[in-house]
Amino acid sequence: MCLAVPGKVIALDGAISKVDFGSGVIREVNMSMLEIEIGDYVIVHAGFAIQKVDEKEAKETLKLFEELMEKT
Description:
By secondary structure, this protein is an alpha+beta fold. It is built from 1 helix and 5 strands, in the order E-E-E-E-E-H. A 5-stranded antiparallel β-sheet has the order 3-2-1-4-5, with helices on one face.
């Protein structure tokens, strides 16, 4: 099973950017498929940003992931 996760772009360095997924999780992500800016929210799958997403939607999804983790 694969999962695409939303995160906030916090730094840009060419095609590789840093994305904050909340709860202290920051990863390098390939942005070559999108035009993004710092502060944008993106959906990440397998290390690639595949779609920009609305901030409200991203935060709701991240909150749901946190709630699921609390239950396990």
